[in-house]
C-alpha cells in the first residue's frame, strides 16, 4: 500500500514538473513575436526589418530592428511601406556596389 502511495506521489510530482516546463516553453514562443502593433513612426535609427505573419497569438506586422531594440509596426501604414522600400533599395545598392580595389604602386 505504501509503495502504491509513493508511486502516485512521484507520478503527480513528475506531471507537475512537466506541466510547468510545457507552460514555460509556450510563453517563450509568445514573447518572441508581436502581439500588438504601433502606427507611430519610429524615430530611432533603423538597422533592418523582418515580416511577421499572422499566427495567433502573433499578429501580422513589420518588425523593425532599431538601435534601441525591435519595434512592431502596422504593415498597412504608408510610412512602413516607404521605409521597407528604402531599406530594400539600400540593400540592393550594397549588393551591386563593387568592392574597392587597392593598388600597390
Automatic annotation (TrEMBL):
Task: Give Gene Ontology CC terms.
Answer: extracellular space
Q: Where is the signal peptide?
A: 1-19
Q: What InterPro entries does this protein map onto?
A: Chemokine_IL8-like_dom, Interleukin_8-like_sf
Question: Which Gene Ontology terms cover its molecular function?
Answer: chemokine activity
Q: Indicate whether Signal appears among the record's keywords.
A: yes
Keyword DNA-binding on this protein? no
* Keywords, ordered alphabetically: Cytokine, Signal
Boundaries of every Chemokine interleukin-8-like domain copy = 32-87
The biological process GO terms on file are: immune response
Question: Mind telling me what this protein is named?
Answer: Chemokine interleukin-8-like domain-containing protein
Q: Which organism's genome codes for this protein?
A: Seriola lalandi dorsalis
